Amino acid sequence: MNIAILIPSLDPDDALVTLVSSLQQRGVDHIVVIDDGSAAQEQFDRCAALGCVVAHHTRNLGKGAAIRTGLRTAQQHFPDLAGVVTADGDGQHAVEDILRVAQEVLRCPDSVTLGTRDFSAPGIPARSRFGNRFSSLFFRLSAGVPCPDTQTGLRGIPASLFDFALSIPGSRYEYEMNFLFTVAQQSIPLHFIPIQTIYEAGNQSSHFRPIRDSARIYAMPLRFAAASLSSFVIDIALFALFSQLFAVRTARAIFIATAAARVCSGVVNFTLNRSWSFANKEDDWKAQGIRYLILFLCQMCASSGLVYLLAFLPLPLTFIKIVVDTGLFCVSYFIQRNWVFRKKR
Question: Are 159 and 82 in contact (CB under 8 A)?
């Protein structure tokens, strides 16, 4: 197979050399190991002695940067590749599964192949089971396509998508989620094959930092929430200001103060989401503005209508509105990502 195996690694143990040796015994001779700024070099020297290519980072740059380095290195050392397969070097991927993904890359040259694990099996760490289910649900709602294992590191990328893979932003774990989101946005097929679910010693070898890396992975919805909160504060502050300026509490004055504050905060929210939350300043802002206005009006009508329909409940009206608007906030995120600020192919 004219497929290169890319193995990003940070401070590896003997499992890395065992994997490389096992792959070579099965006839794989295109192997690139990426040292992502490890302190010790013994394992990488042993891999080099076995004949595989070893690329080094002088400091830890993250898994995304390591994958891009591995891809560029593979292109330099192995011309005319049909594709690459990324695999973890800590024993979580069986050699048989790596070879199966490589075969699928050859069979499906226009698709991204993912080796997906079964998280319902016994012995899976609780944080991994919850994290996978949450990220899979979030991906399906956000991208509009299913993916049973968004966190898998066993991925097959055909040669036709090399430049695409190198263009994906993100240096650390967020690269893998950004890659999947962009694949879905560009309507590139995702091909899934089941693989063994292996967790060595409770997955203690993982370098994933739950808080920091999760913040990187879910940076877009977090930015969206921050932009929405900022707009909310502006809306309240302007309403208070306009109410003081009018100095009356007639229905007309309240309506004008509400509308003026909402329009100003809406403009701020649109600008923040376009330039920061979803970072899509390349497409026509007028078309985006029209779509945003349609969503804005529909959301405002939906909020009023749902609050009215639920007003019969024995709950404070303010509480009902908070619940309704929270649900609409979540819906608004997915609509803005997939429609208002969706990037063109």
Answer: yes
